[in-house]
Amino acid sequence: MNMIAPVRRLRASHVTLAHGGGGTAMRDLIEDVFVSAFEPESLEDQARLSAPALTEAGAKLAFTTDSFVVHPIEFPGGDIGKIAVCGTVNDLVVGGAKPHWLSASFILEEGVEVDLLRRVVASMRLAADEAGVKIVTGDTKVVERGSADKLFITTSGIGIIPAERCLNAGTVRPGDVAIVNGVLGDHGAAILAARGDLALSADIKSDCQPLGELMEAVIAAAPNIRCARDATRGGLASALNEIAEASSVSIKIDEACVPLRKEVRGVCEILGLDPLYLANEGALVLFAPPEEADAALAAMQSTRAGANAAIIGHAVDGIPGRVEMTTLFGGARIVDMLVGEQLPRIC
Fold first, then answer.
1. Across residues 184-200, what is the average pLDDT?
2. Residue 236 in contact with residue 300, Cβ under 8 Å?
3. Where does a domain end: 135, 161, 187?
4. Are residues 27 and 152 both part of a single domain?
5. Which of 110, 127, 161 is the last residue of a domain?
6. What pLDDT is stored for residue 226 in this prediction?
7. 213 and 302 in one domain?
8. How many domains does the chain have?
9. pLDDT tops 60 at residue 2
């Protein structure tokens, strides 16, 4: 194993094109900002991974990747770095994987403040520690001023799915129970308020959080859960439509059971938005067989990320792929996939 060289001190206050040129300025940036925070085992061009779970018969690797372009970069409850870690970790855990390793690639705009970059990187390290993953490799590129919005991040994640697990959106059956882990729409509403374009003063924080502990608790209590989806872009509505289509079932939910903060509901009423389509970064929906639904709900509620978990509906026989909601007034409405973009640049 190659040992990490002593960290150099970066003197620049802003990123310049020289920091992407491959020379000493780039080395200073990488060592001072990234290596000091992530503490990789070596500075090779690749990470070398090993874990006992990889040798277990029937275990599978789970691999995912995502890019993050949120604006503003920092907002109540998080920042682009926290989202980059949590978003990728959650994509792994909803498939039953135990996340182990992340890569992180940064595109920096010339002129971005080094202090901002340090805060984002520190936030990533904190989120990775909370999620129990290691950021093991990455890349940095610098583009000319005006070619990016300060900072873009791409993260990829690798996890291990134990042999006995098989969560699949195509396995939901009529009678299965839909459960969410808490209030919805906080992230989308927080981003909208943080932009300041509409002079909203609502005190809303993003729900950005890793969901690995919650999923492990649920799987232990209800080992036959069918599937889970994190309700990110497109919100709960899009996640439910994806599951209904994959399983060729109908899904019925009850608007009175969908947990929402009054502040989020108020923002949506003022702006004419539908909270079912608001983005989340720490919310998921899962389907459990009816005999395990209470156990899954209790397991969720025993965790910090699932304290406000609630049953919101069921899968039923009906038109395959349809999602329908019983409204507060007792009527029914079709909940379609999101068309277009309700809130741009939310993750």
1. 83
2. no
3. 161
4. yes
5. 161
6. 97
7. yes
8. 2
9. no
**Cα separation, 254 vs 209, whole angstroms:** 26
- For residue 341, tell me if it sits in a domain: no
Instruction: For the sheet with 151-161, list strands across it.
Output: 60-68, 151-161, 98-109, 134-143
C-beta contacts of 119-123 below 8 A and 24+ residues apart? 119/74, 119/79, 119/81, 120/73, 120/74, 120/79, 120/80, 120/81, 120/151, 120/153, 121/33, 121/34, 121/37, 121/38, 121/81, 122/37, 122/81, 123/78, 123/79, 123/81, 123/82
- What pLDDT shows up at residue 197? 62
What is the per-residue DSSP string for 49-88?
Answer: ---GGGGSTT-EEEEEEEEE--SSSEETTEEHHHHHHHHH
Tokens of 192: 């909208």
Asked whether residue 176 falls in the same domain as residue 283, the answer is yes
Are 23 and 84 part of one and the same domain? yes
Does 31 lie in the same domain as 154?
yes
CA 265 to chain CA mean position, Å: 22
Q: Is the pLDDT of residue 58 over 80?
A: yes
Does some domain include residue 342?
A: no
111 with 132, same domain: the answer is yes
Please check whether residue 62 lies inside any domain of the structure. Answer: yes
Signed CA dihedral, 49, 53, 57, 58: sign only: negative
- For residue 88, give the nearest of 73, 108, 103 by alpha carbon: 103
R_g of the chain computed on alpha carbons: 21
Q: Which domain holds residue 48?
A: 17-161
pLDDT digits (tens, 9 = 90+) for 101-151: 999 999 999 999 999 999 999 999 999 999 999 999 999 999 999 999 999
Mean pLDDT of 219-230: 97
CATH number at residue 104: 3.30.1330.10
Q: How far apart are CA 216 and CA 303, in angstroms?
A: 10
> Residue 275 falls within a domain, yes or no?
yes
- Average pLDDT of the chain is 92
pLDDT at residue 201 tops 80: no
Question: Residue 47 is encoded by which pair of tokens?
Answer: 């990470």
